[in-house]
Amino acid sequence: MGIWRQRWHWSIWLVLLVGGGLFSFSVERLGGYPRKFPDPEIQVTLPRFVQVALAGGDRYLAANIAVVRSLLNSFGGDTRDRYLVQARVQTDAAWLNPRHEDNYYVAAALLSWSGYVPEAEDILLKASQARPFDMLPPLYLGFDYFYFNRDSVLGSRWMYEAARRADSEQNRISLTRIASRWAERGQDARDALRMVEVMIQQARGASLKRYLELRAERLRGLVQLQEAAGSYRERNGKSPASLEDLVRSGIVKKLPVDPQGRGYGMDAEGMPMLIQDPIRGPAGG
Amino acid sequence: MIFAIGLLLIGGAYLASLFSPRQPQTVALDVGLSGLRFALVLQALFWVQELVGREIERKTVVLSLAYPVPRSHYVLGRFFGIALLLAVATLILALLLWLMVLSSGRGYDSARQVALGLPYWLTIGGLYLDVLVVLGFALCLATLSTVLVLPLALGAVFAVIGRSLGSVMDFLLTRQADGDAEMVAQFGPVIRVIYRLLPDLSRLDWRDWTLYNLAPDGAGLTWSLLMAGGYILLLLAIAVLAFQRREFA
Fold first, then answer.
1. Contact state of B33 with A60 under an 8 Å Cβ cutoff
2. Looking at chain B, which residue has its C-alpha nearest residue A167?
3. C-alpha distance from residue B105 to each of A172, B20, B99, B109 (Å)
4. Which of A53, A137, A219, B55 has a CA positioned 20 to 30 A from the CA of residue B140?
5. Angstroms from B191 CA to nearest CA on chain A
6. Closest approach of A206 to chain B, Cα-based (Å)
7. What is the distance between the alpha carbons of residues B155 and B136, in angstroms, rounded to a whole number?
8. Is any Cβ of chain A less than 8 angstroms from the Cβ of B19?
9. pLDDT, tens digit, 9 for 90 and up, residues B203-240
10. Is the CB of A165 inside 8 Å of chain B's CB atoms?
11. CA-CA distances (angstroms) from residue A70 to A55, A77, A103, A104?
């Protein structure tokens, strides 16, 4: 009996040693092994209501967790993977709490510049709608549409919304100016004119109103020229080669005068257009 | 215990605010409110277990029932007693959080400052009502159940599901599961049934009010209050009925 007990005692120590040895040996070996991650898409973004349930059913907490995650952004992988995950996490956060300020800010600052433009626009659109007091989301959104999608109509619409929410007179004036300048780059001069006319109606302050009136006047000249070019095409079966053709053919008596002094031109397709200041890249200021 | 949880919660909220580049106060308040709700739900379930469940388990409840008062008084007395304790706990934690948010993130120019006046206290009120619904549910289970931990466990599940319900409804029915028609067809009817049975506790979360100064609309607010109040009454009635029929042998 005593011998058996002794052996039993002894074997426990043996098991302990073997187990401990195995453990420390394998831990040592494992350290060198690279960890294999599944596709980052699956790895990091759980279905949205699972995220909510994990946060104890608390949607706001789930949003905060997602935002902190996107701010830390240490999901490894190469940069393409990283931004893919970033975009997913941030889109989720925007659904969980569209009002989160950090989330839309990071989206504007990071996502659209890394090629995830639709995601950034989705987040900014949600923020613009959910934060009616905040001028920044529509401002970023308008900029995104204008700069990344080359959609000056949508861009100007959101820029104008930003101007409406502006916190100071100074900001309001400068944002309205940007909005109206973008509106003029729209395809159809009549759309742009309508946009500027709406702005005039809602403009407060005489100097801003005067500035917009000049723009409207300039656009009216363009509308007149574009309509004349249309009649020219109908009559001659081809586009005018220059603005002077319109005068020579008698469709317009004389070319409209641009009150802002930059004048009108003709694009490659024979469509009258505004002569712009050289477009400055928004990144360069 | 409440103070330990409180300090933990305030610390957590403060840490979370350090992560926020743009709106530390808002994030501190946001995370703080989440923690507050979490702590209060746990506290409510704990008190139900200690003050009702354990009494029934140890049969000491028989002593209370020996007094010449109806059994319903026992149930209602426990409910209002715990509700009062919770009110004190809520007040203490809310004050701590309030002070922490006030003192954190000074000097930052967020787009909109948090509203720490009346909106804050009304939000806390909504949160308290949310916890009362959970309390009612746990109490109701405690009068029915013969297993001590059942009210605690199911109460926690109830708190999570009730809170998630709004998000799930939103995702599945309002957004049509992002175009996943199969998912909508599969889970839509189930969710609709659950929605008829369990309260949507996320309707009592008015924190947009204090976080972004966006007041909830009056009609929605009124219906949420009625929903919560009605559900509490329903639970209490079931609890009283079950308790009256229960035999303590």
1. yes
2. B111
3. 28, 10, 12, 9
4. A53
5. 13
6. 28
7. 9
8. yes
9. 888 888 888 888 888 888 888 899 999 999 999 999 98
10. no
11. 17, 14, 8, 11
- Under a CB-based contact definition with an 8 Å cutoff, are residues A67 and B31 in contact? no
Q: Which has the minimum average pLDDT: A81-85, B26-30, B121-125?
A: A81-85
| Secondary structure class of A203 (helix, strand, coil) | coil
Residue where the block lists tokens 């040693």:
A17
Helix (H, G, I), strand (E, B) or coil at B116: coil
Scanning the structure block, which residue is given the tokens 């020219």?
A232
Q: Does B176 touch chain A (CB under 8 A)?
A: no
Q: What is the per-residue burial (b if ≥16 Cβ within 10 Å, else e) of B141-153?
A: bbbbbeeeebbbe
Residue of A nearest to B24 (CA): A102
A162 in Cβ contact with A142 (< 8 Å): yes
Q: What is the pLDDT of residues A93-125, one digit of tens each?
A: 898 899 888 888 878 877 777 778 888 999 999
**Which residue ranges make up each domain of chain B?**
2-245
Instruction: Determine the pLDDT at residue A284.
Output: 29
**Under 8 Å between Cβ of A84 and A40:** yes
Helix axes A152-164 and A136-147, enclosed angle (nearest 10): 160
In this complex, which of B111, B162, B201 lies closest to A134 when CB atoms are compared? B111
User: What number is the ipTM of this complex?
Assistant: 0.77
Residues from chain A that touch B211, judged by Cβ atoms under 8 A, are 99
Do B201 and A57 lie within an 8 Å CB cutoff?
Answer: yes
All residues at 6 or more sequence positions from B54 whose CB lies less than 8 Å from its CB, including other chains: B148
Element (H, E) at B32: helix B24-48
pLDDT of residue A124: 93
Nearest to A193 by CA among A172, A216, A159, A224: A216
Rg of the Cα atoms in chain B? 20
Asked if pLDDT for residue B129 goes beyond 90, the answer is yes
Q: What is the pLDDT of residue A202?
A: 63
Q: How far is A267 from B242, CA to CA, in rounded Å?
A: 84
Contact between A226 and A271 (Cβ < 8 Å): yes
